[in-house]
Amino acid sequence: MRTIKFLLLLIAILALSACVAPVAAPAESGAAGAEQPAAEGGKLVVYSSVDEENARNLLNAFSADTGIDVEMVFLSSGPALSRIEAEASRPQADIWFGAPSENHIVAKERGLTQPYMSPEAEGLDDQFKDAEGYWHAFYMNPLGFGVGSDALAERGIDPPTSWASLADPAYEGLIQMPSPQSSGTAYAIVMTLVTIFGEDDAFQLMADINPNVQTYTQSGTAPSKALAIGETVIGIQFTPAFLKLIDEGYPVTLIIPEEGVGYEAAAMSVIKDAPNAENAQKLVDWMLSKAGQEQLSAQKTYFFPVRSDVSAGEGVPELASIKLIPYDLEWAAANKERLVNRWVEEVLGQ
User: Fold this and answer.
1) From residue 308, how far is each of 143, 237, 243, 312, 318 by CA, in Å?
2) Does residue 299 sit within a domain?
3) Cα–Cα 20 to 30 A to 335, which of 19, 22, 166, 202?
């Protein structure tokens, strides 16, 4: 009986071994003795705050180019930062991919990330990288107005061309924009206006625009969705969704206000003590390379590349044609509660 049990156990072990896929062995030399190129391979765990579709397309292109197997977990900015902090003693991910650069500044200050000076970052403007290599921006999106051109034409109204023109009574009830109480996009609008006009004049302008605002949305991307279905005529947010609507044939015009616009610069950081730090660095290098930046247009992300030698793609305005308004991110973070409270009191009148 013991002999039979032993034989059955041995057969089971052999059968199980046959089902386990072997680890890929190094390539052997060909018949003529030619050396075969070694595959890079390996694993990379990514916490992504880029929208899921675009993140997956970009990371799939990275995997195709490098052979690195990517596992992606989608987390918006706040939850991603909280999870990285909770896992700090035993990191479960290798890189934080996406979220505005100010979030990565916070991660650096909390000791959650590690520096890496990518050779591909040498040509980037200083606003798109940390001087010590803790984070690198890999795309940016300016603010803009998405305008339903047919709807305005039917009303006999010219489209707005500036922030100041949004206060024109002709636009009463025609504007949707996000609320800074819930939206980072909206706070970028507030900071843009404060930087352009000065704080007091900016708040007076926002109060003057308020009667024209149909809805302050909770989400930063909601105005473009309302524009697509005709619920609003003018939407204000970051530009990618407007560019997508135009590409899909919607009667929408993108307007960059003449005073200039703030922007978001989505960044990436290698997580401190990452299990696969070397592969995380490879993603940083690839994403900042010309080939990686070209994937932004190839994958129809509608994001603007941060490299000056890469085109944003057909239909996307040249970055050089847009007046960008940078602002002090640390000051913005330190004054956010005060400015949002002032917005509630002076713009909403509550």
Assistant:
1) 19, 24, 20, 10, 10
2) yes
3) 166
Q: Quick one: 189 and 101 in the same domain?
A: no
For the chain, the farthest-separated pair of C-alpha atoms sits apart, in whole angstroms, at 95
| Structural domains in the chain (count) | 2
Q: Give every CB contact of residue 117 below 8 A, 6+ residues apart in sequence.
A: 133
Whole-angstrom distance, CA of residue 212 vs CA of residue 288: 41
- pLDDT (tens digit per residue) in 148-172: 999 999 999 999 999 999 999 999 9
Supply the range of the domain harboring residue 73.
43-140+265-316
Residue 289 near residue 120 (C-beta atoms within 8 A):
yes
**How many C-beta atoms surround the C-beta of residue 46 within 10 A?**
24
Alpha helices in the chain (DSSP H): 2-19, 52-66, 77-86, 101-109, 149-155, 184-197, 199-209, 222-228, 240-247, 277-288, 290-298, 329-334, 336-346
**Which amino acid is located at 3 in the chain?**
T
Token code pair at residue 48 = 């992504």
